[in-house]
Amino acid sequence: MTIQRGEIIRISLNPISDREQAGDARPCLVLTHTQFNQARAGIVIFSPITSSVKPAVKTLIPLPDGFKIHGSVIAEQVRTLDLSQRWWKSTGEQLPDDFVDTVVATLNVIIG
Q1: Is the pLDDT of residue 26 over 60?
Q2: 44 Cα distance to chain centroid
């Protein structure tokens, strides 16, 4: 199965350290382009999703309405993992390209 850019997957992020988001099956937003995901056979770049919505925190990007998953993407907590080495599954939900672009643009402001 090819993982799509904008797809929400549930993935085990353990082990974690310090202030990283933990959880046995945390929802995460795939940021890498679909072609990259195909070529790298399991390597994806993503940001975890939290159930919190805090409009004052500009790096927490609220998910659009109308999806099963609610909360915010944590733009500054970007991770790269090999999904062939971890438990994961698709939620079957795909966020719009413009939303993913907003998350990536926020990250770009952070790392410039």
Answers
A1: yes
A2: 10
Domains of the chain: 7-14+23-111 (2.30.30.110)
Considering only CA atoms, which of 9, 16, 53 is closest in space to residue 31? 9
90 pLDDT higher than 80: yes
Three-state SS sequence of 23-40:
CCCEEEEECCCHHHHHHC
DSSP label at residue 7: E
Peptide bond into 62 cis (omega under 30): no
pTM value is 0.88
pLDDT of residue 32 exceeding 80:
yes
Contact of 7 with 90, CB cutoff 8 Å: yes
**Phi, psi torsion values for 96, nearest 5 degrees:** -65, 150
Residue type, 34: T
Q: What is the mean pLDDT of residues 85-111?
A: 94
